[in-house]
TrEMBL record:
Pfam families: ExbD. Coiled coil: none annotated. Keywords: Cell membrane, Membrane, Protein transport, Transmembrane, Transmembrane helix, Transport. InterPro entries: ExbD. It is found in: Cell membrane. PANTHER family: BIOPOLYMER TRANSPORT PROTEIN EXBD-RELATED, EXBD MEMBRANE COMPONENT OF PMF-DRIVEN MACROMOLECULE IMPORT SYSTEM. Its main location: membrane. The chain crosses the membrane at residues 20-38. The lineage of its organism: Bacteria, Pseudomonadati, Pseudomonadota, Betaproteobacteria, Neisseriales. Belongs to the ExbD/TolR family. Gene3D superfamilies: 3.30.420.270. This is Biopolymer transporter ExbD. It comes from Deefgea tanakiae. The keyword Lyase does not apply.
Length: 141
């Protein structure tokens, strides 16, 4: 009996990837169609209230007020600025001889977050590391 005497070597088996790709595409389409995507429509945050007693005015503090319309005040005087660097110069002027005064930020509830961040950035540029926020008491004891 003659078994493949004329052949010199064995043929390597071929792996056909086309059916594998087809199956993977079907699985991918199935996963995309059945996946649920959750969206957060809004972020609900309950902000804390403060019931502490009002502290006495400290002569080493700078009061910075931010209104809902984006107007700024330093120690009760209106302040205009175009960049945090300009506002830092005004903070240094208000500090006078104080090396590291406490910056008290009184921001309106309707003010934009960016306005408060601008005040914080100006305090950092001016070299003042003590920041605090003024709160409103609830009136209940």
């Amino acid at each position: 009996m003659k078994f493949n005497k004329g052949r010199r070597g064995r043929l390597d088996p071929e792996i056909n990837f086309i059916p594998l790709i087809d199956v993977l595409l079907v699985i991918l389409i199935f996963l995309m169609a059945t996946t649920t995507y959750s969206k957060f429509a809004e972020l609900k945050i309950n902000l804390p209230t403060a019931d502490a007693e009002k502290q006495l005015e400290q002569p080493q503090s700078i009061q910075v007020g931010v209104s809902g319309a984006g107007q700024f005040m330093i120690n009760g005087e209106p302040a205009q600025f175009s960049s945090p660097d300009d506002f830092a110069v005004q903070l240094r002027r208000a500090a006078g001889s104080n090396a590291d005064p406490m910056i008290v930020i009184s921001a309106d509830a309707q003010t934009s977050h960016q306005n408060v961040v601008n005040v914080m950035e100006a305090a950092r540029v001016a070299g003042y590391g003590k920041l605090t926020f003024a709160t409103q008491t609830t009136g209940q004891k």
